[in-house]
Amino acid sequence: MEFLVRAENRLPPETPEEERSRLKKGERARADELRAAGNLKRLWRVPGRNATIGLYECTDATELHDVLSSLPMFPWMDITVEVVATHPQEQ
Amino acid sequence: MEFLVRAENRLPPETPEEERSRLKKGERARADELRAAGNLKRLWRVPGRNATIGLYECTDATELHDVLSSLPMFPWMDITVEVVATHPQEQ
Amino acid sequence: MEFLVRAENRLPPETPEEERSRLKKGERARADELRAAGNLKRLWRVPGRNATIGLYECTDATELHDVLSSLPMFPWMDITVEVVATHPQEQ
Amino acid sequence: MEFLVRAENRLPPETPEEERSRLKKGERARADELRAAGNLKRLWRVPGRNATIGLYECTDATELHDVLSSLPMFPWMDITVEVVATHPQEQ
Amino acid sequence: MEFLVRAENRLPPETPEEERSRLKKGERARADELRAAGNLKRLWRVPGRNATIGLYECTDATELHDVLSSLPMFPWMDITVEVVATHPQEQ
Amino acid sequence: MEFLVRAENRLPPETPEEERSRLKKGERARADELRAAGNLKRLWRVPGRNATIGLYECTDATELHDVLSSLPMFPWMDITVEVVATHPQEQ
Amino acid sequence: MEFLVRAENRLPPETPEEERSRLKKGERARADELRAAGNLKRLWRVPGRNATIGLYECTDATELHDVLSSLPMFPWMDITVEVVATHPQEQ
Amino acid sequence: MEFLVRAENRLPPETPEEERSRLKKGERARADELRAAGNLKRLWRVPGRNATIGLYECTDATELHDVLSSLPMFPWMDITVEVVATHPQEQ
Amino acid sequence: MEFLVRAENRLPPETPEEERSRLKKGERARADELRAAGNLKRLWRVPGRNATIGLYECTDATELHDVLSSLPMFPWMDITVEVVATHPQEQ
Amino acid sequence: MEFLVRAENRLPPETPEEERSRLKKGERARADELRAAGNLKRLWRVPGRNATIGLYECTDATELHDVLSSLPMFPWMDITVEVVATHPQEQ
Q1: Cβ neighbours around I50 below 10 Å, total
Q2: What are phi and psi of C84, to 5 degrees?
Q3: What is the span of the domain harbouring residue J26?
Q4: Closest chain G residue to J2, measured at CA
Q5: Cα I15–I21–I22 angle (5° rounding)?
Q6: Looking at the predicted structure, is the pLDDT value of residue D91 above 80?
Q7: Does residue C90 surpass a pLDDT of 90?
Q8: Rounded to an integer, what distance in angstroms lies between the CA atom of residue E55 and that of residue E4?
Q9: How deeply is D31 buried, as exposed, middle or buried, from its count of CB atoms within 10 A (0-12, 13-18, 19+)?
Q10: Muconolactone isomerase domain: from which residue to which, for each copy (chains A, B, C, D, E, F, G, H, I, J) (predicted)?
């Protein structure tokens, strides 16, 4: 089952570069794992914003929450989830 | 997997009583089937509105759409779906 | 009488782990009491957010406020309450 | 238990005067009954709009819906309900 | 002339208990004076929020502003005012 | 007491020219009376819209509603009223 | 370049079945052409709504408009376009 | 003085082709005149919508309203105007 | 050319009294100059808020921005500008 | 391909003058480079706000994001991007 997930990153601009860099590396590593596991199918950048739109595949919303909250940036992210259904044209 | 579903019924007030009554009967019959099938777990009335909030259980969003679009009032309903996850306190 | 209660937890990400953990334990303990008392009937997680949707049963809005403000996280929660009526199909 | 009820009347401007007048008379008569029954405690006009704000007293949201849907104008009204609690200063 | 006044209290959760308590006592004392003066006719609690809805009576909006800004919590309150007219049914 | 009044005119574009012209003439005549009576102090056009912003002076919101509902276009107007207070700098 | 395109279909529920069916067939045929041309990469159903979310690939917004306005349902569709950028993790 | 003008065209999809074509031709002719007069400096299409964004130059808002209301489609257009100032970097 | 300008003052409640008083005095002095120059024609208080609505007269939006940004409180003000046109009834 | 870009500058008013001045100089220098490169075609000031609207030309949204995130003020800017298509009248 697929979900469109919009994530605005609210990490304050004053965050020390070292902390920011550590978080970003962790974020990328975890995202790679989620790609390998088939949970993260696509990731787009929202132009002009520190924000992304991701296409996730999970068995249900509970697994999706576990996936999203496993990201190191999660405490600073403002996330909205939209569940999408398969369109008959694609079946 | 559970979904909270808000449905505003936009059937025009000018709809002839006979048509309205036929639709309502069909709506109730279909809702009873969905209850029996375990898809419709709770249904609330939004006070003061021709609107409901339902708690649905479906395997995924595709089945949910099939369930909702099988309701006779569907063409007049303005529906918004919110997917909910299991809370750790309830596991 | 039932209420759907959406609660966004605005506890700052910088909160020390000890304080956060103490609040969470207190939150769970109080929620268990509210479950035992029949005030908290269901609790869902909003996927991707530090937020919940709860189904509460209280005699009126005044008791509901007492119930919600008794939660240890209350000072950091942004809560919206929606009152729901019994649907004729469920009577 | 008290509710603040905002009602926008969407009766089309093209409605024949006779029909409009019949509905208004019925509306007033029913409102008088609700006042006598203690359900309608105050009614204000929203200035510049065909809209009202009412303070209702009902045992619960289900009774409130019965009260509101008993008004002859109900099919044309766009109603939003806000539940209010007793403030400690007034106890 | 009557006004419906919604006031969200934005006093930060980190405010020391002593300061909070001092402000609350002053708030109550001032509210009692406004009740005695006939300016504050009703006060409701918005359930689940540190917020109130008040029914005020003032000669005009200028007096209303003086009344509201005389409350000790005023600097932390986010207030919206809605002016209401007398409904013909109540004349 | 002054009010800022925004009025969107929703008269359908299909309205016959004769009807439209009759309403406009009546609107202007009534507005002139309100100017003479001191109720309508300024009237602006919202550029690009069939809408106006007016500065009204009335004893209270009840008189304001009588004034606004006396305009021939009233049944087609979507009006929002904002009450304004005297600023200390202008006293 | 990719675009996320949300399309709400506002075709009135009263549309004769024959017309609706003709439009749907044309819609599907045109969508198949757009898939073959590489413009339409994914199509999801918004559950509970007569609405879709599509992932389109076009050289620019002008081509995207030509693509969308070539759909037979276009005159009844309320479309919002969100442009997305490639995320560094996917380069 | 420059204005950014967003115009949504609400001409109903049921409008006969002949009427639509006549309006479009008139619209184009009037736009050409406004371009020649220096009032219409740029015009963009909002992708996926029957809507435009225009950059207009007028002496003031009153002239802008005259310019916009001279367009044959004006009665069906939902227009919002944003006034922009010269940026110091461009002086 | 006239503008309606809404200004919410976001100066934090924790600002020391001395600083606040210095800013207010400067604000008043500058406002008096703008009144004398004919730029500030009216100023209202939004009741219940640390906010004003002003009616400004400037040659264009660039001058308006210079006027507004010359106010000592400008860095803390959240300002929205609405441009208004002369109404034919007032010409 | 053109984009309309709205940027609200959220640099806190408490920022030391030196830091603010350094950022502004850098901002101007980078903007000049973007102008020279043909990416920044127009820049307007939103009157009354520390905000701009820019007309950018980029090959796609990915280049646009690179352009915007190269601005020294980027970490404090709240940016929204609207993609625009060429209007047939301008082809």
Answers
A1: 21
A2: -120, 150
A3: 2-86
A4: G61
A5: 100
A6: no
A7: no
A8: 5
A9: buried
A10: 1-89
Q: What are phi and psi of F87, to 5 degrees?
A: -85, 140
Average pLDDT, chain A: 97
Residues C6-21 have pLDDT tens digits of 999 999 999 999 999 9
E: neighbours with 3+ CB pairs under 8 Å?
C, D, F, I
| C-alpha distances out from residue A78 to A23, A51, A52, H66, J68, Å | 16, 9, 11, 44, 22
Write phi, then psi, for J48 (nearest 5 degrees): 85, -5
The total domain count for chain J is 1
Main-chain phi, psi angles of H10, to 5 degrees: -100, 20
HEC assignment per residue over chain J: CEEEEEEEECCCCCCCHHHHHHHHHHHHHHHHHHHHCCCEEEEEECCCCCEEEEEEECCCHHHHHHHHHCCCCHHHEEEEEEECEECHHHC
Min distance G85 CA to chain J CA atoms (Å): 4
Which of H83, H84, H90 is the best substitution to test chain I (most I C-beta atoms within 10 A)? Answer: H83
Task: Identify the contact set of chain B against chain D, taking CB-CB distances under 8 A.
Answer: 13, 45-49
Q: Is residue J9 part of a domain?
A: yes
Helical H runs in E2-86? Answer: 17-36, 61-69
Mutate to test the interface with E, among F83, F86, F90 (most CBs of E within 10 A): F83
Task: Decide if I91 is inside a domain.
Answer: no
Burial class (CB in 10 A: 0-12, 13-18, 19+), J69: middle
The answer as to whether A91 is a domain residue is: no
CA distances from A38 to A2, A74, B59, G54 (A): 11, 19, 19, 21
* Helix segments in chain F, DSSP class H: 17-36, 61-69
Full-model pTM: 0.96
Burial of H56 (0-12, 13-18, 19+ CB in 10 A): buried
Chains I, J: CB contacts within 8 A come to 25
Q: Based on the number of CB atoms within 10 Å of its own CB, is I38 exposed (0-12), middle (13-18) or buried (19 or more)? A: exposed
Q: Do I83 and H65 touch (CB under 8 A)?
A: no
Q: Helices (H) and strands (E) in chain G — how many of each? A: 2, 5
Residue I31: give its domain's CATH number: 3.30.70.1060
- Kindly state the tokens that stand for I50: 């640390």
Residue-wise pLDDT for D43-60, tens only, equals: 999 999 999 999 999 999
Give the pair of three-digit tokens for residue B41: 């777990």
ipTM for the assembly: 0.94
Alpha carbons C19 and C16: distance in angstroms, whole number? 5
Q: Is F13 inside a domain boundary?
A: yes
